[in-house]
Amino acid sequence: MTSDHFAAAELARLCAAKGVRHAVISPGSRSAPLVLAFNRHPDITCLRVVDERSAAFFALGMAQQLHAPVALICTSGSAVLNYGPAIAEAFYQRVPLLVITADRPEEWVDQGEGQAIRQQGVLALHMKRSVQLPRLTSDELARWHCGRLINEAIDATLLPVPGPVHVNVPFAEPLYGHVEADEATQGRLIAPVMTEPFILPDHARWLIGQVSACRKVMVLAGQGVWSDGLKAQLKRLASLPQVTVHTEATSNLDDTAFITCIDRAIEGVNTTNENDLKPDLLITFGGAVVSKRIKTLLRTWRPLQHWNVDVGQRHYDTYQSLTHDIAVSPEIFFAQIMNGAQPTESIYAEAWRMVDERMRGLHHRLVSEAPFCDLTVFNTLNDRIPGDSDVHVANSTPARYVQLFDRVRGLRWYSNRGTSGIDGCTSTAAGAAFATQKLTTLITGDIAFCYDSNAFWNNHLGPLLKVIVVDNGGGNIFRYIDGPDKDAELLPWFEAPHTRSIEKLVKSFDLPYFHANDQVSLEAGLDHLYAQHERPAVLHITTDALTSPKVLRDYFQHLRSS
Questions:
Q1: Rounded CA gap, 165 and 94, in Å?
Q2: Alpha-carbon distance 307 to 284, whole Å?
Q3: Is the alpha carbon torsion for 413, 418, 422, 427 positive or negative?
Q4: Per-residue b or e along 421-456, where b marks 16 or more CB atoms closer than 10 Å to that residue's CB
Q5: What is the CATH number of domain 2-174?
Q6: CATH topology match: 2-174 vs 370-561
Q7: What are the helix (H) ranges across 370-481?
Q8: Does the predicted TM-score (pTM) go above 0.85?
Q9: Does domain 370-561 sit in CATH 3.40.50.970?
Q10: Close Cβ partners of 355 (under 8 Å, ≥ 6 residues apart)
Q11: Would you list the DSSP string of 303-330?
Q12: Do residues 468 and 529 make contact, with C-beta atoms less than 8 angstroms apart?
């Protein structure tokens, strides 16, 4: 059985034919034809999540892990607008989402009809593509047009680069009719053929020549989960004396050959060694870079050349020095470069290694001397989270703290750094855990946790999701950032203490709750958290609101003054 509305039935059929296996649906009336068609398709698993904002981030987490489009379905009206934050995140993080929104007939827009808003193209600014399906599909030409639009929309979630696509579907009543699936009129499946660009030989030779001749080459990796082949190519590149490779936690490229704690290492840059550390050639790839310090430093340094490697040709000029936009995948780029790159006489890689080693030694001493605070908490978490598992870090404090610690146990790091918002961090981790069925830890702050508490209003949560809430009394990052911390009147507007009981909030969802407020209870709490439970478990860690920012400020000051 399927819906008797052609557009709904065709959407479900073509989604299944093109490999869409999951649909996250929020309840509503106007979306009834879509629910009938998707829920009754044998090859699609439908998941009900009531809160549309949480549902969108849940689908984002799923698609992020599956590397395949997930359908997101809701009713008409303001329900659609609740998808906005997750759609923006998916757009900038390049996560494939097929957003299918039911709509009233266009004739009723602005006519006082309930749930009839200006819905066509309402999310277009952060969509790869927005499609309006025809309301009337009674003739063959209209059905051909509808089917072609659906084919294009599904394919656009993955090609040429992944991202969100919006399909808006107006339905006139009656909504609940159905027909046998084999009786439904069917359109044509249009199959995409995958292609992969490469650098033309003459251009590749020039690029290789530049890397071989330049005495100071910095490679900076942004957010992503990369292949073992790319990592091997980067290790070969880092073996050249003129090349240094810098990565972050969310780059998922941890290796002793790389500088993996950028914010920590940068504090070793000073007027004495600056010329030795400043790159002449900067090569960047991947998504967002967390470190504000590296952005500021590179914008000041202005390398002579900056190559950005991105198959989608985004023309990212983050460091205001872009000279070449290279529209191939990083895997192909570095493979072609390493086919001919040669070493040159240089101390560049060694200069960065010396700075990194000195900062690492100071880091360990400073952490060992620090009182119980956010810094020591993250040090313990980095050591104690089970290896070979997934870790999601919320914005904004957790995403910054994790960059300060060496990562050596095969953890995979994720964060919503496309827009860097706090909304939806928990829902994203929940969707990711559902998709992977792997141990998944979310490290979040108290404000972000409260903001997205509806993530637990969800029947698809399993025991492999572990949540760690680092509660420092509000948006504690603003006690560290210069400006808000110096104005007692304005600080509450930035820090925004939540005054809610996280324990009661967690227990209202019937989840196991544990609390820690010192090193001993933290270690015991982690043991309890990672024990077997039937539901997601939450460890609530409280730290002093004044101590943590002071320790962090002193930490960087000591690194800098060394």
A1: 11
A2: 6
A3: negative
A4: bbbbbbbbbbbbbbbbeebbbbbbbbbbbbbbbbbb
A5: 3.40.50.970
A6: yes
A7: 374-384, 397-401, 425-436, 446-451
A8: yes
A9: yes
A10: 265, 268, 269, 273, 277
A11: -SEEEEE-TT-----TTS---EEE-S-H
A12: yes
CA distances from 438 to 54, 131, 375, 523 (A): 21, 35, 27, 22
pLDDT tens, N- to C-terminus, the chain (562 residues): 888 788 899 999 999 999 999 999 999 888 899 999 999 999 999 999 999 999 999 999 999 999 999 999 999 989 999 999 999 999 999 999 999 999 988 887 777 777 878 988 889 999 999 999 998 888 889 889 999 999 999 999 999 999 999 999 998 878 777 787 766 667 778 888 878 888 999 999 999 999 999 999 999 999 999 999 999 999 999 999 999 999 999 999 999 999 999 999 999 999 999 999 999 999 999 999 999 999 999 999 999 999 999 998 778 899 999 999 999 999 999 999 998 999 999 999 999 999 999 999 999 999 999 999 999 999 999 999 999 999 999 998 999 999 999 988 899 999 999 999 999 999 999 999 999 999 999 999 999 999 999 999 999 999 999 999 999 886 555 555 565 556 666 556 666 777 789 999 999 999 999 999 999 999 999 999 999 999 999 999 999 988 999 999 999 999 998 7
**Quick one: 201-349 is in which CATH superfamily?**
TPP-binding domain (3.40.50.1220)
Tokens in use for 54?
């949480």
Phi, psi of 509 (to 5 degrees): -100, 10
- Taking CA atoms, 180 is separated from 9, 187, 379, in Å, by 11, 16, 59
Task: For the chain, give percent helix, strand, coil, nearest 5.
Answer: 40, 15, 40
Task: Determine how many CB atoms are found less than 10 A away from the CB of residue 287.
Answer: 19
Nearest Cα to 432, choosing from 413, 419, 447, 451?
A: 413
Task: For the chain, give every domain's residue range.
Answer: 2-174, 201-349, 370-561
Tokens of 505: 């909030």
Give helix 374-384 / helix 348-369 axis angle, nearest 10°.
Answer: 110
Are the C-beta atoms of 541 and 370 separated by less than 8 Å?
Answer: no
- Asked if 403 and 375 count as a contact pair (C-beta separation under 8 A), the reply is no
Asked whether 322 and 222 are in contact (CB, 8 A), the reply is no
